[in-house]
Amino acid sequence: MIPARFAPLLSGFLMSLMMSSIVSGISTLRVAGAGEGFAAAWLTAWAYSWPVAFPVVLMVAPLVRRIVAIAIRPPDAA
């Protein structure tokens, strides 16, 4: 198991991995179609997008958390 102090890093890693995979897949499908070259084109697109997505997610996540905290109503005190 991974120590709890690494939770934000792991969260950013997984979020950027999934986000860049989906976006790369959609854009590759749109440009290259679903033919034989799809897998290679997708992998290339993902290889370029993930190294950008990971640090961006890590930098933007604290801001997003603050915005969400402002936007939501706290639970009613019981």
Summarize the structure.
The protein is mainly α and 78 residues long.
Structure description:
There is one protein chain. The chain is mostly helical and 78 residues long. 77% of the residues lie in helices and 0% in strands. The protein is built from two helices and no strands. It has helices spanning 7-32, 38-71. It is elongated and about 55 Å long. The model has no long low-confidence stretch (mean pLDDT 83).
Write the layout of secondary structure elements.
Blueprint lengths: L6 H26 L5 H34 L7
Helix pairs in contact: 1-2
Q: What are the low-pLDDT stretches, counting only 5+ consecutive residues below 50?
A: none
Task: State the end-to-end distance.
Answer: 35 Å
Strand content: under 5%
Tally of DSSP helical segments: 2
Helix share, percent? over 70%
Spatial extent as radius of gyration: 17 Å
Average pLDDT figure: 83
The total of beta strands comes to 0
Envelope shape? elongated
Largest sheet: none
Please write the string of helix (H) and strand (E) elements. HH
Which structural class do you get from the secondary structure elements? mainly alpha
What are the key terms here?
elongated; single chain; 78 residues; 2 helices; mainly alpha
